[in-house]
């Protein structure tokens, strides 16, 4: 037993230092040197203070902004300090009620919209921090935002189209729009 | 299944095989003690390390010493991860001042990471200090994977050698697999992930001043921080607002890389690979897909190379590929079909050029249905357990596929080492069944399969179903078990069945609605993970020792060829039959009932 304990202890200690300190610290040094923007969270700054991250969604509810997906984080939506989804099953009444409430709210906010509601606008994302929405979800909101901003519909449509992120290599992922970046671009329109 | 889904699956398999083939050559040489190319420079360092630790590099072990060394080494890991969590409050690299983790959760997490399960009862960003994440969890991500690899290499030596009582040196196997295979792959992969947007720093959490004010409700707290209840017995809710968002930070990419390559699956954050800081783009997601399967696929080729007949490795891989591809088709179709109740309300779930459609609850926009379904099947075929979607919100059939893949014993690629050693045990069972049918003594790769091997095979194949079914039965019978259920009805049963299936088969993913961070579940899943891992490893090492000692028989006209399509079909049949016999009744009570309820509109 003692014959096993010495190699076990020493090897465990050395491999722990190698994989648990040397490796992550070396990775940090290289990442900070090569990709500092990404390594530090893809932060967006305005007037010298952080206003968000390109990768982390924010909660939007005003008519003049595009809205992101429902977020199930607690205690508030888009709480990046505590990520997670609703974990509601498809046949759970609570899930159907939640979808119904989201639907009613959307229909009320878009009285002139006749299209069916895109599914991503009424279902909570996995992380609760989804920074993006589908193109269908962005187009669904065009009229409301244009109306609230007094902006020509065609111009707003163009702005959304300028912000489309396509599939990678035409195959991986889904076409989508980053909600925070789109809204910041909207605010920047003179 | 749509055309883009088929194309993506094809691209994935193509890139996987192109990468796994050269890697298998590297692994074979490393594990046979060669020092190719640049490693010649490191050889003196390696020698020095062994001398310090009192290890004789060229002294091989019998299976019993190999098993004892492995168990002692892994128990040290449990103690270290437990200790780090309990003491993290007074240790460095803790900018968020995380307090000590509770004893039962620390126990559960320690076993979870040592057994390569990475079941997580806690949320990473609210629980663990950076030191615990690096020196506790990241270390075990490496060492548990290296342990699995060591066991499978020992088993392969058992087939490859003859008339020898030795199966290798555990210390040397673990060190070389960690330092020469896992570390370099992880470093490269971590930097690729950072380039895509995965964070890697030691900063305290950042505060963002958001564009809009967020209104929300939170419970009123008394002076001691406990919620105040109103007259109706419910907590009093206060209207609150904030214009700040806490952005979590940390050394994520380094952990993410080995989390995938080591088929561990434990997320830095609660949302795991659905979190944009862990998996920001479709490309990072595709790379994670590849990383999960890379070593398990390469090990099939290593098997072929080491036993001196590459066709043997291809046959095992072919059986895995057929089951995997079938599962992807079923999973993708189920999730693309969506939930009929939502369509009835006027929700558009139709896939088009403008949206992914389908069941988007618990999924991310950048991945949609296709990428998510592929990842879900990969992570549960392999015993990885990372998630890009909340599995609790999958459709009933979409949840059945990952559950059943785990129940097959994590042998469809499976974990690093553990997938292949599990599959080789099924191969032994398959030749045994074939031998019974034709009335000949079964043999595999020139080794006679006798009573001793079959006893050990029976133990390894039966240990996980017994753990899963007995512990599930206990949990649904006692209040402490039922208290954890989040979704009512058949789905609630599925949550518990999934939890023990995942724990005993060392996967680690969850139907996460289940409140599993309670003393009951922490202890029960801890038991499942520990015995699900080591009650397989020890009998498998015993098989390795026994096979190694046998003579090799010459191939003759009566030998069942184990490299052709006939054997592949026989192997698939054996795996599916054992899985179905064990689990169909349990599955009928959970996902099958729920599917019937969903399509009939109840």
Automatic annotation (TrEMBL), chain A:
One of its GO terms (molecular function) is ATP binding. It is a single-pass membrane protein. It comes from the Bacteria. GO terms for cellular component: plasma membrane. It is found in: Cell membrane. Its main location: membrane. Keywords: ATP-binding, Cell membrane, Ion transport, Membrane, Nucleotide-binding, Potassium, Potassium transport, Transmembrane, Transmembrane helix, Transport. It holds the Pfam family KdpC. HAMAP family: KdpC. The system is composed of three essential subunits: KdpA, KdpB and KdpC. Belongs to the KdpC family. PANTHER family: POTASSIUM-TRANSPORTING ATPASE C CHAIN, POTASSIUM-TRANSPORTING ATPASE KDPC SUBUNIT. Part of the high-affinity ATP-driven potassium transport (or Kdp) system, which catalyzes the hydrolysis of ATP coupled with the electrogenic transport of potassium into the cytoplasm. This subunit acts as a catalytic chaperone that increases the ATP-binding affinity of the ATP-hydrolyzing subunit KdpB by the formation of a transient KdpB/KdpC/ATP ternary complex. This is Potassium-transporting ATPase KdpC subunit. The gene is kdpC.
TrEMBL record, chain B:
InterPro entries: KdpA (IPR004623). It is found in: Cell membrane. GO terms for molecular function: P-type potassium transmembrane transporter activity; potassium ion binding. The system is composed of three essential subunits: KdpA, KdpB and KdpC. Part of the high-affinity ATP-driven potassium transport (or Kdp) system, which catalyzes the hydrolysis of ATP coupled with the electrogenic transport of potassium into the cytoplasm. This subunit binds the extracellular potassium ions and delivers the ions to the membrane domain of KdpB through an intramembrane tunnel. Belongs to the KdpA family. NCBIfam families: kdpA (TIGR00680). This is Potassium-transporting ATPase potassium-binding subunit. It comes from Aquitalea magnusonii.
